[in-house]
Each structure stands twice: as C-alpha cells, then as structure tokens.
Specification:
The complex is a heterodimer of chains A (473) and B (334).
Chain A lengths: L1 H23 L29 E6 L7 H17 L3 E6 L5 H10 L5 E5 H9 L7 H5 L9 H4 L11 E14 H6 L11 H15 L2 E3 L7 H12 L5 E3 L5 E3 L4 H16 L11 H9 L3 E7 L2 H9 L6 E5 L9 E10 L5 H20 L1 H13 L14 H10 L12 H4 L7 E2 L6 H17 L5 H16 L2
Parallel strand pairs in A: 1-2, 5-8, 10-11
Antiparallel strand pairs in A: 3-10, 4-8, 4-9, 4-10, 6-7
Helix pairs in contact in A: 2-14, 9-10, 9-17, 13-14, 17-18
Chain B lengths: L3 H7 L7 H4 L18 H6 L2 H29 L2 E2 L7 E2 L3 H7 L3 H20 L1 H12 L4 H13 L2 H11 L7 H8 L14 H26 L3 H9 L4 H12 L1 H16 L3 H7 L10 H11 L6 H31 L1
Antiparallel strand pairs in B: 1-2
Helix pairs in contact in B: 5-17, 6-11, 6-14, 7-11, 8-11, 9-15, 11-15, 14-17, 16-17
C-alpha cells in the first residue's frame, strides 16, 4: 500500500513540476495569431533580413476603443502584411501607463513597437530601455525633414535617435458647445482671457448645474496640467542650470496665479462641480458625457472622445489657452514610437518598417494618407484631428489637403485653436524627472481644490523641497 | 475520550490540559534502551521518500512563489535596479532614502488612522452581528448568507461600485438616499477629512462577513450551562455577552485582532482604487507608497526603494506580532 501511495505522490509531483516549468517558458514560444508559420530569427545576417520571416508585436489602440476602431486597425495590419510578405504583425491593446510599462519591460511582455509620450521618452532612453534605431532611422528618406524641436524628444544625450516622434500636440482649452448654449453663451466666441474663462464657468455652473471648469488632478496629470497653467501665466517649474543639475522652481508667480485661479473658481464661484479626482481618461469621459464645461488637455483628445467615449460631435469645441504675461506659452507634447531594447536586429528592422508604414506613412506620402483616411472614415473613426507639424508647417497643411475629402471631425468648431496655435510660443515640458515633479504637484492641486484654507505658498515650497530632493538624487 | 467540559475549558487555552491527560514519563526513571541509529537507510525504509514526495509540491510552489521572491526582495533592497539593466549594490542607501522621504510620516499616520478606524468599526460589528444571529433560531442560515455575500463579491468590483455610490454631487447614490432624511450632500471621497472614513466603511462592509462566520462557529463552542447560570443570576442579553460570551471567545478574539491589525497595516486596494492616495495624500498608506516607488512615478521604477520599505514594514509587523503574542499569552492562559 505504501508503494502505491509513493507512486501516486511521485506522479503528482512530476506533473506539477513539469507544468510549472512550462508556465515559466517565455512568451516567445506562443504561436502567432496569423495562419502562416513564422519563427523569430535571431542570427540572420542583414542582407537576408528582408526575406527571412519575422514576427513583430505592435500596439494597436487604447482599451475601450470601439469595435469599428479595432476593425480599422486590423485593415491597416492587413495592408502592411500584404506589402511586406515576410512580416507578421501581432497586435495588442495598449495605453501608456508608467506602472504597467516597467512591469511589461522587465517581464518581457512589452510589444516590440510601442508608444511613449515625450515626457517619458527621455527617461526611458537614459535607462537604456529603448533600442538604438539611429542607423535604421537615417535610412528613412525623410529623416532630415523633421522639425528639430520635435525630434529632440526622441534623441538621447548622444544625439542618436532612439524613438521617432509621430505626433505632436499643444495643450488647448476644450469646451462643451452645448453647455455654452444652455448657459446663454455664444459657442463661437470661446473665452480668450482667464477672466472670461472664470465668467463663462460661473455662467455654466449657475444655469446648467454642471461643472463650469474642471481640472485633472491624479496620476501625475495634476502636475502636468498645473505646469500647463504655469506656462500660460508666464512661469516655469524647473530651471536647467546648464551644468547637468536642475533647480525646482515650482514656487513661482505663474504657478501661484494658476492656483489662485483654481481657488477662486472652486471656493468663491463654486463653478468646478463636485468631482476633483480626475485623471486623463476619466476627465475625457465626464466631458464627453456633458458634465464639464471647460478643461485643458492635449489638442488630440478628440480622437479618444470618439473612439472610447461616444461623444456627440456637436458638443465639442476647441480653442487656445489664454496666455497672460511676458513669458507665457503653450505646453507642447507629443508621442514617440519606440522599439523595445530587447528586440534583436531582425525585429528592429521589421519594426522600423511598421513605424514607417503605420505611424509616419500617412504624414509623408499622399497615397498612404488617403488610404488610411479612407479606412478610418469608413469605420467612423475621427479623421483630421488637429495636430502640430512634425516636419514643417507647409507639409502639415499639405497633408490636411490630401485627406480633405475624408475629414469628419468638426474642424469648424476648432478654429479657435487651429487659427491661432501656430503663432503662439510652444514650450517643452521640463526635462529632468518630469513625471516625479508632476507627481509631487498632484497633491498641491488636490489640496487647493479640497481644502478651503490651503496655503498655496507653503504647499509650493514643500513641493519644491521634495522635487529638489529627487532631482539631486 | 475527553468530556465536553474538558473541551470547553481547554479549547482556548492550549497546552494546559495536555499535561493532565498524558503525563510524560520521567526520563530519569526510564530504563536505558538502545535507540536505533538513524541512517539514510532507516529514513528511506521509514517512508521518508513518500513523505518527501508529498511535501514536494508544497515546497516547490511555496518556494517559487513565496520564499524565492521574498529572498529576491531582500536582496533588491540593497541594490539600485530597474530590472532591465544589471543591478548595482548600494548598501543602505535605499533605506536612508525611504526613511527620509517626507511622505513617510504622512503614510504611517494614515495607515495607523485606517487601522484604528477599522478596529473601531470593523472589530465589534462582526461580534455583535454574530451574537444577534445566534439568538435568531429560524433564519440563521439566511442571515449567514447575507452577511457573507459582500465577501464573495470580488474586491475590485466592490470598490468600483462604492466609488460610484460615493459620487459627491447631489445626484450621487448615497447623497440622494441621505437627502431623503434631510442630510446634506457630502463630498465623501472628495474631502480630505471624509475620504479615509469612507474607505474604512467600504472595507468593513467587505470584510465583516468572514469574521461573522468565524464568530458564529466559535459561539457554538460556548457551553449553554454558563448561559443558564447567567440567566439564574438575572443577566440580560448584553450582560451575558459581556460576562459569558466574550471571555469564552477570548482566544479567537485575540487571534482575529492581530490578524486584523496585520491586514489593515497592509491596506492597498481601497486607497489605490478609490482615491490613488488623494485628495492631497490624505489616504496614502505605506503599501501605496511602496507601489508608487516601484510603478508610480519615474518609468525606471525604483524597485530598490520599494523593496526597502517592504522589508522595513515586514520587520515591524514581525516584531509587533511577537510582542503581541508575548503579552497576550499570559492573558489567555488565565
């Protein structure tokens, strides 16, 4: 009897051990979704790259995007695979989340090609988490045409390109035209000064009961938007000392004015509604649902509103942020397409082809742009959302002309922004420990919005001390 | 077979009665017998191999998923690492960084506040509920199900549901319900003072059911003669609870207390999902700080600082538990 027990125990132990070993094997062994058989090559010489089959994992869209959006993306994947017959593309949903990124990279589940905002790009490059694609980048025919101010976001300290900027934006003031009308305001005359913003917010809050003005406050977006408001009031939250060190200057007049503005709207006018814990996704959600009159965010959020939040296009309006003061400017940002540092040469080459096709093609080449626009429009996806030029303003205008027939976003409701943005100074985000600085400023914004007696001066001094501690580390 | 009275008296004071039941032989009085030599062969013949194979799955699973990560974490606490580049040893720097973090006192205060509130609300309520339920003879099963239902709901779902209920506007669910009895709309999670109690309320609702079931089971072990004696002395329900039930349940109560303290010291889900530590760090707990070190801010991921703080927390809780058991050991024996 004892021997039977032993045999059963041994068998169980063996089964468990082997199943554990199988679980721990890398994701590289998983089968590709496509029907044709492919393998990841590791040691093919460069000259044979173009013929050897290779699989790349790319990111598709943010989770929560509509089925039509995903269908449109799959169409593009098919077009790419038809053009490059040896490359198989596997895609997965993706949203830039710093916590998930670190775990993904360490665990090896990060796609080969993924998107990173400008702010985080530099940090990733410093940490060696992005592949060096400088040589492959220089082979692109349009490599020299990039706006240098935009390209620098993807360059390392050595000047090499580690990520390619594919979209640039400036921060704008989004407003709900329907709420404007309900409040008796003219939706074609959005506010142009901060005092007008205050007055309009008050009108909306009184006449419609919705929040007149809202602000992001969580997940580093509070600090981000506070920096936007700081720039708009002529301040800066960080100074580059030029010798490799940085000084935190969060306690400056611009930031103080921005916080005073929030304090006034919140506690005197009560025009900011009752929700003060917003991040990028949730504020878009509430805006699309008609609960917010005005807020600031990147000028490209209309895409997210359509794809994931079902906005009524008639509600949407976009204008420039009011600027006040000598050094005032608009915070610029953008997105980079990067290749994971763990990709081998064959995968890197294929990844660059995908970047060229999916991210850059529609901005450079008329046929790609039209083809992409056609697919997007057919699936009711937004075409023509305003952006800032990656290359030159002329090329940007030209590319808008190409897809003129497919533009389905209400550009007429965005003229407040598109007419003026090119004349305004664009300022880049602070360069050192950007996300950390934003994270330290989140509680400052939250405190001002939830505590009537918040002392702005002391909050900012504390933030400065904390950020400096991290800058010096 | 031990009698019922033996069980009831000794059940919660382990060790005391064993001596009475089975007196150990006096070693000096034993005749000097030759004990068999223990060799690998005797181990094998004695069924050692089958013991090992039965223990093997447990060893492998715990080793891989519990002990190995703990060892790794302790090592990482002394390193500067982002899990991609090779790690470098930095000695005590992570601990220094963590202990001088200006947010740490706030996090400790908030964690203690959460633990205290959870103790005030969450500790007596299951006991009261269990006592009430044990008095009701007929629908006890039904009430048990009701009490346990919140525990069955997945925690993330429960939190998101409550987050929706806690909406601060006039049309939020709780504000509407309170409006029916004339209580003003409350900001709930939007207020620095109300945020933590709101979290505790949800945490209590979610966790009380499990403790209720434990107490219900323990209540059965209280001998009814004691209640009869109390009745004779003219005690009402609550005096019976205070003088009969609670002393009898002393052992269980001590265990659930330390478990609750250790559990609430590591609270993460509610602050993370409800408010992400806000507003203005009023709900930032130690675990949330650890999470932010590793995943929250810079994309490099400061795993060294995160593991350093985790190690400090683990050491503190271990010392606290040791002290607690030492202190309560003497109490529960009497």
């Amino acid at each position: 009897m004892k021997s039977t027990r032993t045999y059963v125990a041994l068998a169980l132990a063996t089964v468990l051990t082997t199943s554990l070993a199988a679980c721990s094997s890398d994701s590289k062994n998983e089968e590709p979704a496509a029907s044709d058989t492919t393998t990841t090559t590791t040691d093919s010489s460069p000259t044979e790259e173009s013929d050897a089959p290779v699989t790349i994992k790319v990111v598709s869209l943010t989770p929560g995007s509509s089925d039509e959006a995903f269908a449109a993306f799959d169409e593009q994947v098919k077009a790419f695979e038809a053009k490059y017959k040896n490359i198989t593309v596997e895609s997965q949903e993706y949203e830039w989340l710093p916590d998930k990124f670190a775990a993904d990279l360490a665990g090896g589940t990060l796609p080969d090609v993924f998107q990173v905002p400008f702010t985080d790009g530099r940090g990733l490059i410093e940490n060696g988490q992005l592949a060096d694609i400088d040589a492959l980048f220089k082979e692109l025919p349009y490599a020299g045409d990039f706006n240098p101010n935009v390209l620098q976001a993807g360059q390392g300290a050595d000047g090499k390109v580690y990520a390619i900027p594919y979209s640039a934006y400036g921060v704008g003031l989004h407003y709900n035209r329907t709420l404007f009308k309900e409040a008796g305001l003219d939706p074609d005359k959005p506010p142009t000064t901060w005092d007008e913003v205050r007055a309009d917010a008050k009108a909306i809050a009184e006449k419609t009961g919705q929040a007149g003005y809202s602000m992001m406050t969580q997940g580093n977006t509070g600090g981000w938007q506070l920096t936007v408001a700081t720039y708009a009031h002529g301040g800066r939250i960080q100074v580059d000392n030029g010798d490799g060190t940085y000084t935190s200057t969060a306690n400056n007049d611009g930031t103080k004015k921005a916080l005073e503005f929030l304090k006034t709207l919140r506690w005197e006018d009560n025009s900011m509604g009752s929700n003060f814990l917003y991040d990028w996704g949730s504020i878009n959600q509430d805006f699309a649902a008609g609960k917010i009159g005005m807020y600031t965010s990147g000028n490209d959020v209309y895409t997210n509103m359509v794809m994931a939040n079902n906005i009524n296009p008639d509600d949407y309006g976009l204008t420039v942020i009011p600027l006040d003061g000598a050094d005032a400017g608009v915070l610029g940002g953008g997105n980079l397409a990067a290749v994971s540092a763990k990709a081998d040469d064959a995968v890197k080459a294929a990844a660059m082809k995908w970047i060229d096709f999916y991210y850059m093609g529609k901005q450079i080449d008329k046929d790609s742009a039209v083809a992409n626009a056609k697919i997007q429009a057919a699936s009711n996806q937004p075409v023509g959302t305003p952006a800032l030029p990656i290359f030159s303003k002329e090329l940007y205008n030209e590319s808008q002309e190409w897809i003129k027939d497919y533009i389905n976003v209400p550009l007429a409701q965005m003229t407040g922004y598109t007419d003026k943005i090119f004349d305004l100074p664009l300022i880049n985000e602070p360069t050192a420990k950007t996300q950390d600085s934003y994270a330290e400023l989140d509680p400052v914004v939250q405190a001002v919005l939830t505590d009537k007696n918040a002392n702005i001066d002391s909050l900012l001094s504390t933030a400065d001390k904390n950020i400096q501690r991290l800058l010096d580390r | 077979m031990p009698t019922e009275s033996d069980l009831s008296v000794s059940a919660l004071a382990p060790g005391k009665n064993d001596a009475d039941l089975a007196p150990t032989p006096d070693p000096a009085a034993q005749p000097h017998t030759r004990r068999p030599r223990r060799t690998p062969l005797t181990w094998l013949r004695g069924g050692g191999l089958s013991n090992l194979t039965f223990a093997l799955p447990l060893l492998i699973i715990f080793g891989t998923f519990s002990w190995w990560p703990i060892m790794r974490a302790i090592v990482m606490a002394f390193q500067h690492t982002n899990l991609v580049n090779p790690a470098t040893f930095v000695g005590w720097e992570n601990f220094q960084f963590v202990l001088t973090d200006p947010l740490l006192p706030t996090a400790i205060k908030n964690t203690l506040y959460f633990a205290l509130l959870a103790l005030l609300f969450g500790y007596p309520i299951p006991l009261v509920a269990a006592v009430l339920m044990s008095e009701v003879k007929k629908l006890k099963g039904f009430f048990s199900v009701l009490a346990y239902l919140p525990v069955v709901v997945p925690p993330v779902i429960a939190v998101l549901l409550w987050k929706f209920f806690y909406d601060g506007s006039d049309t939020g669910v709780f504000n509407t319900m309170l409006g029916w009895i004339g209580l003003g709309p409350y900001p709930w999670l939007q207020s620095q003072t109300m945020a933590m109690p709101s979290l505790v309320l949800q945490a209590t609702w979610a966790g009380a059911g499990a403790t209720v079931i434990i107490y219900l089971a323990a209540l059965i072990s209280v001998p009814p003669e004691l209640y009869d004696a109390a009745d004779v002395d003219g005690a009402g329900v609550w005096r019976k609870v205070w003088h009969v039930t609670m002393p009898q349940l002393r052992g269980i109560l001590f265990i659930t207390l330390i478990l609750q303290i250790i559990g609430t010291a590591q609270v993460f889900l509610e602050p993370y999902l409800f408010t992400s530590g806000g507003p203005a760090n009023s709900t930032t707990t130690i675990l949330l700080m650890i999470y932010n070190y590793a995943f929250g801010r810079s994309v490099g991921g400061d795993y060294g600082a995160a593991t350093a703080l985790s190690v400090l927390l683990a050491i503190f809780l271990a010392i606290f538990s040791a002290v607690y058991f030492k202190l309560t050991n003497s109490w529960s024996k009497s």
